[in-house]
Design a protein that fits this description.
By secondary structure, this protein is of the alpha/beta class. About 35% of the residues lie in helices and about 15% in strands. Strand 2 and strand 3 form a beta hairpin. The two termini are about 35 Å apart.
Length: about 475
């Protein structure tokens, strides 16, 4: 079972823990040595302590899925993953040097230096976008450079992969990211737009050239949404030494609508490397923020109209439904578990491109304080995740075709319904509990889901257990 805390000297699947190099809010980084050949790497482990945000676990799952698929000099080389049933980890190439974070002490920097940094970061983003990935957390602490000069983007816990399920979007309704760098569409829950990364890079270049963050560092959703209608102070107002071409590029990156930004990271990099060819507009000469009436007009418009709408979801093909299986790990007999698997398989066999989402609702207390660790010190969320994977293992589905979701809520039925509505689920499969006095009095979860679900529901009942 997962250890709550690792210590130097521990050996995890052939990697010896040497020392803790960084401790963050969602993960720890360890210097490790591979015992087989003495090679040195970096190991990342999720935070699973008492009271920690479940998003730490979900984002770690995303990173485990995405990193093995990434290639090129702009990403850390992936070495190995560890399963949640034993010890979750990611072992990756250990890069020399530091992130851009220490450079904050030297701000502001000359425009030419910021442009040179920005162009190399844009190169990395272009490589990432060509691989179908949007980073969604571009910031100084997630950028490093190889000795040969290439920018390297690290930390893919919040990233979106075009060909993989987006667990962060499916399980959490609030936007995740780093407030000073989040694009307007990201604030509104759109995670599939590559130009969100260009907005973040624009915010970074603004900060590096002026020493001031363009939108501050809001900590609440209300503050984040202000960037939907409130433009930043033009950077040349804060630093008159900045040339017009630099302001033109940066303010274009910071446009509210993604369609008004550079079409690609490659085009942004080209502008940064060829400032003499940048076509200047009114943005280049602007020295004041938009006036009161302009802001009032934008503020009065529907929020989603201020940003580019996400592409409409294609009509659900009959051979590619989203099938959700709701598993009650607290009341699951081997017979019912097998019946649910067989029911799911029948649906999957008829739909070769179907995606399976396996759910469990960890019921919260209405009054009492919930504990995230059990009496043995094991993280309950992780244990349930392992239980779901154990249930699905006999199905032998390829990675990417099945995902696992531990949801926390007071009302399990309503949570399953919310998940189905939010994620356009086409078919729910779930088990019915055996007859009991409480079930007759209060009603069952399966009955409520079957009555209110926006999709087909299959309720599996083990008749042999009924009396």
């Amino acid at each position: 079972m997962v250890k709550g805390k690792l210590n130097p000297g521990d050996v995890i699947e052939g990697f010896r823990i040497d020392e803790l190099t960084h401790s963050g809010g969602m993960a720890h980084l360890w210097s490790v040595t591979r015992e087989a050949d003495g090679a040195s790497f970096l190991m990342k482990t999720p935070v699973v302590y008492e009271g920690e945000d479940p998003a730490a676990i979900v984002s770690f799952e995303m990173e485990q899925m995405i990193m093995p698929r990434l290639k090129g000099v702009h990403v850390p080389r992936h070495i190995a993953n560890g399963d949640f049933s034993t010890q979750p980890f990611i072992v990756m190439e250990r890069l020399s040097g530091e992130t851009l974070l220490p450079m904050l002490k030297t701000l502001p920097l000359p425009a030419e230096q910021v442009a040179e940094l920005g162009a190399r970061i844009a190169d990395a983003l272009q490589s990432l976008h060509e691989q179908g990935v949007v980073h969604l957390d571009v910031k100084p602490s997630n950028i490093m450079f190889r000795p040969s000069g290439e920018a390297v983007l690290i930390d893919y816990g919040l990233a979106h992969h075009r060909q993989l399920p987006d667990l962060m979007q499916e399980e959490f309704r609030l936007p995740y990211g780093t407030a000073p760098y989040m694009a307007p569409e990201q604030v509104m829950g759109i995670r599939s737009e590559p130009r969100s990364d260009l907005f973040a890079l624009g915010a970074l270049m603004y900060f590096f050239a002026t020493g001031t963050r363009p939108f501050g560092d809001p900590q609440k959703l209300k503050g984040l949404k202000q960037r939907l209608w409130r433009d930043p102070v033009p950077p040349r107002k804060l630093n008159p030494a900045l040339p017009p071409w630099f302001q033109e590029i940066v303010l274009r990156c910071l446009e509210v609508k993604a369609g008004r930004r550079h079409p690609t990271a490659a085009q942004l990099a080209h502008d940064l490397r060829h400032p003499g060819q940048v076509a200047l507009t009114a943005r280049a000469e602007k020295l004041e923020k938009d006036g009161f009436f302009a802001v009032l007009k934008r503020k009065g418009e529907p929020q989603m109209s201020l940003i580019d709408e996400a592409p409409p979801r294609e009509a659900q093909a009959s051979d590619a439904p989203i099938v959700s299986v709701a598993i009650n790990l607290d009341d699951m007999t081997p017979e019912l578990a097998d019946m649910l698997r067989r029911a799911a398989l029948r649906i999957l066999e008829r739909a070769p491109e179907a995606r399976l989402a396996v759910l469990n609702v960890q019921k919260l207390n209405r009054i009492a304080l919930d504990q995230t660790l059990d009496e043995q010190g094991h993280n309950k969320h992780v244990q349930r995740l392992v239980g779901l994977k154990d249930w699905a293992r006999p199905l032998k589905l390829d990675q990417g075709r099945v995902t696992f979701h531990v949801l926390e809520a007071i009302d399990p039925a309503e949570t399953i319904l919310d998940y189905a509505r939010l994620n356009n689920v086409d078919h729910i499969v779930m088990g019915a509990r055996a007859n009991s006095t409480m079930r007759k009095i209060l009603g069952s979860v399966s009955a409520k889901v079957a009555a209110e679900a926006p999709c087909t529901v299959t309720v599996v009942r083990n008749r042999a257990t009924e009396g």
